[in-house]
From TrEMBL:
Pfam families: AsnC_trans_reg, HTH_24
PROSITE patterns, per database record: HTH_ASNC_1, HTH_ASNC_2
Domain spans labelled HTH asnC-type: 10-71
Protein name: Lrp/AsnC family transcriptional regulator
Keyword Transcription belongs to the record: yes
Entry keyword Nucleotide-binding: no
GO terms under cellular component: cytosol
UniProt keyword annotations, A-Z: DNA-binding, Transcription, Transcription regulation
Entry's Gene Ontology molecular function annotations: sequence-specific DNA binding
GO terms (BP aspect): regulation of DNA-templated transcription; response to amino acid
Length: 162
């Protein structure tokens, strides 16, 4: 029998709470309770339990990158000279220092890492690549791809379970 995860122990009400909060993290407890058909006190207790269990990591405001002048969404594939633990740790620590790096994934396949950056313009991208990324020890190859259009973007996770 496979090990159970925290998600396996969610009931329908917990899933409705998570779905509602993923849609609007600013819901008041009273409004959330109304949406999931609970009274406010048990609803708040469930939210606090979901937070304690690590199913809710935090609450954020989603900003519009274009309104903030961040018009380039760039994907960068990076290959390292060697995939040694210390090289991987160094790379991950160094890219994590830059706020324009929105996501960074250790990958299988042709490259070792896939980064997603949001920058205002080509000059900012060039500065990031030349002044920072290319100077990380062990970087062997850098390939950039530009998103022409964002077809889908979401932050809500699929909760399953009905």
């Amino acid at each position: 029998m496979p090990p159970t995860s925290a998600a396996d122990k969610l009931d329908a009400i917990d899933r409705r709470i998570l779905a509602a909060l993923q849609e609007d993290g600013r819901l008041t407890n009273v409004e959330l309770a109304r949406r999931v058909n609970l009274s406010p006190s048990p609803c708040l207790a469930r939210v606090k339990a979901l937070e304690r269990r690590g199913l809710i990591r935090g609450y954020v405001a989603l900003c519009d990158p274009l309104a903030l002048g961040l018009s380039l969404n760039v994907f960068i594939s990076v290959s390292l000279e060697r995939q040694r633990k210390d090289a991987l740790e160094t790379f991950e620590q160094r890219v994590s220092e830059h706020p324009e790096v929105m996501e960074c994934y250790l990958m299988t396949g042709d490259s070792d890492y896939l980064l997603r950056l949001v920058v205002p313009d080509m000059q900012s991208l060039e500065r990031f690549i030349v002044d920072h990324l290319a100077k990380i020890p062990g970087v062997a190859n850098i390939r950039s791809s530009f998103a022409l259009k964002q077809v889908r973007y979401k932050t809500a996770l699929p909760l399953g379970g009905g």
